[in-house]
Amino acid sequence: MQAIVHRRITSLNALPKQSLRVVALGDSLVYGYGDPVGGGWVERLRRHWMSTETEGHVLYNLGIRGDRTFQVAERLEQEYRYRGELKNRVPDLIILSVGLNDSPRLGRRDGRLFTDLETFQLQISRLLDQAQQLCPVIFVGMTPVDEAKMPFLDCFYFNHIDQYRFKEATKQACQIRQIPYVDIFEKWMARGGDWVRAHLSSDGLHPNVEGYQALYNDVLNG
Length: 222
Prior knowledge:
Blueprint: H1 2-5, E1 21-26, H2 28-31, H3 41-50, E2 58-63, H4 69-81, E3 93-97, E4 105-106, H5 117-132, E5 137-140, E6 156-157, H6 160-176, E7 181-182, H7 184-189, H8 193-198, H9 209-221
Parallel strand pairs: 1-2, 1-3, 3-5, 5-7
Antiparallel strand pairs: 4-6
């Protein structure tokens, strides 16, 4: 089974037919914050895989709101080791989605970055290396924000320019390691500002119900 999973995966629809154990780690985008109907894209995927008509993959949602890259790295291996279900078994696949919470500027629009880009590049590289040592990995990128709704929590100024820089750093790190990367930021931005705003919650940061449904579709289609 591991040999099959290690092949290049372009979408979650391409997973092998055998039942797999999958863990999804990251921030509020993994957790599904802002979606009281479907519980987010990971929860939608979990429910889809629970159907008797599907392969029966088991999916654990390990998203924590506000997590930055170094925090996901700190808990990655322990979370992974506890999710094999059966004795001497560990999960077959890790889905990562993190980086948005590293990218805002603090206090004002031209304030310092919460995580400076050079530090982020080191942290995301270490996280990917750490994850790849455990099992195959897929990375789901961040969604764009509504800049007009900033600051978030009266402190965090997210913007598209910095989002682009952080997602490109992540995408390049994934490409170097041949980790499939789903570029959600580019997909959403290509649909236009009105579309993006219509798929975000009132906070301008988290997807709404329709946003998570669109994100679910984007992830499945790769």
